[in-house]
Structures are given as C-alpha cells and as structure tokens.
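Thread: Olfactory receptor, structure

OP (GT): Posting the sequence first so everyone is looking at the same thing. Length is 311 residues per the record. Can we get the structure tokens written out before standup tomorrow? I want them in the notebook alongside the other entries.
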Amino acid sequence: MRNHSAITAFTMLGFTNDSQLQILIFIYLFITYMLSVLGNLIIISLILVDSHLKTAMYFFLQNFSLLEILMTTACVPRYLHILLTGDRAITVKACFSQLFFVILFAATEFFLLVVMSYDRYVAICKPLYYMIITHDRICRILILCCWVFGLLIILPPLGLSLHLEFCDSVIDHFYCDASPILKNSCSDTWFIEQLVIVGAVLTFVMNLVCIVLSYILIIKTILRLPSAQQRNKAFSTCFSHIIVVSMTYGSCIFIYIKPSAKDEVAINKIISLFPTSVAPLLNPFIYTLRNKQVKQSFNDILKRLAFLSKK
C-alpha cells in the first residue's frame, strides 16, 4: 500500500511534451497574456480618468476588466514558468491556492455578468430611475455581493478538499482544476463532487436565467420604441455585453458537453484556454469597438499624450 502522506506536490502535464510545440505555446500565451493585461488596464485607466465614464455601466465594466486580469494572471504565468524552466512540480498547497483563485474569479465574473445585464435592463426599461437605482453606493454593494457569492460557491467544497489524501500526483491540465485534483484522491470524493455540481448549477444556470429574463424584457421595451434610430441605439448599448455573455457561457457549455471520455481531457484543456487566455484578450476590443464614448475617451488621451510629448 502506498504512503499517501508522502505526496506533497503534483506534476502538471500541461498540453504537450513536444519541445517545439511548447515554444509555440509559450509565445502564444506570453503575447496574449501581455496584451490582455495591457488592454484591460487601458479600460480601467480610461474609466478612472475620464469624467464622462462615471456611470454605473462603466463602473461595472471597470470591475469586469479587473476580474479578467486576475483570471488570466491566476492561470497563465504559472504555466509560462513551467514551459520556461521545465519544472512541472507544484506543491499541493500552491495547487489548492490556484484552484481557489481561479474558481473565485470565474464565479464572481458570472455574477457580475448578471449585474451588468440588470444595469442594461434599468437603463433601457427604467431610464427615468436609472441614476437613482444605480447610485454609487448600490453599485458598490452589488460588486461586493458578486465577490461574496463567489466565495460562498468555492469555500464549502474547497474546505472539504483540503482534508483529502492523495495516491496519485498527476494533474493532466495546464492549471489546477477541480476534476484532475479529485481524480488523484484516494478518499471518497462523492460529497465534494455533489457540492461542486450544486455550485456549478447555481452559478451557471440561475445566472443564465436571470440574464435571459433581463434581455427578454429589454427586447420587449426596445421593440416598442417609435423610431429605428432609437431601437438601434438601445441595441448597440447591449451588443457588447451579449457577445461577452455568449462567449463565456458558450465555452462552459462546450466543456461540459463532451464527445467521448477519451477526448474529454484534451478538449477541456483546449477550451479552457478561451476563458483564461482568449476572452481576456478579446473583451477590451469588444467593449471599445462598439462604444463611442470609450473610443472618444481613448482618442482624447492619445491627443493629450501627443500634445505633451511635443512640449
């Protein structure tokens, strides 16, 4: 019988052992990570310095950009270190820490997407009450609730998982995810798995229902608007959020709809790149390309910098 207590570290397999592919993966992840952080920092900075971007919508967007930075930072730099050094070992404590932050940021992001859809609902369906309902204090409370709900989702299963014994040490992923960690355990993980499922359903399904209901009401209101110009303007304010929601939920659906057990791990790893690497890169472009105020703010900042550089 193996000595379970001897396992103090896991071995993270990542994507491949092929050295040439590892170089390509490193270049891709490094570039997308740097651009993701830069793009989201630009969004955060613009909203901080521009007085025209002080509404609730941009406050929530600022927090969403922060979560995108945190999410990609929780996953990508560790794997870049593995690719750079070849050291695939990660301590059990470090692995659980990474798992905690990844799920916390992901769950909080899901709840924030609901808040952002509610903001669009109020702006379009209750425009006269928008400034009252989306007061600064209420917005801060909503953000705090997103973080609290995220913590409530992760803490129960994580707390129980800390007492597990392990008889295998291989993490077949590029970051510490719940499924490969539980597969390494010799202990009975049935109850933990049920908690994970309940948490996933509460986070995924209930939030999606809230978002769909919000947009049903939004669409009904928009269709009642008298002019095509008003309808187009109202739709344009929701377009970016709809794309982000579609990408976020779409990647999760693909992860859980598996073609076969044999392909499950490989497909999960590839699709997991989307919320951890691709989405944080695309979201700043999605929100800026469709938003005249953000584009105007960005152009104004560039003009100021150009003017100062000429002095």
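GT: Both are above now. Quick notes for whoever picks this up: The radius of gyration is 22 Å. The longest strand covers residues 9-12.
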